[in-house]
Every structure is written in C-alpha cells, then in structure tokens.
Input
Amino acid sequence: MYCYLDIKNLTAVNMKADKTEIPALKEQYDVVSDPYHASAKYWIGVDATRCPDDLLKKLIKESFDIVLKKSIRHPKVRK
Output
C-alpha cells in the first residue's frame, strides 16, 4: 500500500515517504504533516485540499515508487 485516504476528508491523505526526507518535507511544506493512524517513521500526511497539484503528484509518485521497489526485491509479493 502506498497511499490511503478517507474519500470524504481529503485533509488527511497518508502516503509512504523516504524516511530520510520526511523531516525536510514537513519543514518545507505546511501541507505535509504527521500521518493519521500510521507510523510517522515511514508515512506522511498531506492535506490534498491545499496541496499544489504538482507537489501532490510528485509525492504520490514517490510513494508508489517506494512500494514498487520493495515488490521488485521480493518476487513472492508479485504473485
């Protein structure tokens, strides 16, 4: 899973992030915060209602790529 949200509340979209980049993301963007009901070590929360489209697309792509890399390393997951 690389992203999850409550479709009725887009102020708390959770997505995976590189754990080394999470502090910088939270400092640089006020729309990035701690995730809702997820480990703050690996996940970020994004307010999609205020997030610029280009940033939201970038964060979703990076989140997807993190999960994809894991599934490639573990072929059993792809079955």
In short: The mean pLDDT is 90. Residues 41 and 68 are 19 Å apart (CA to CA). The first helix runs from residue 22 to 28.
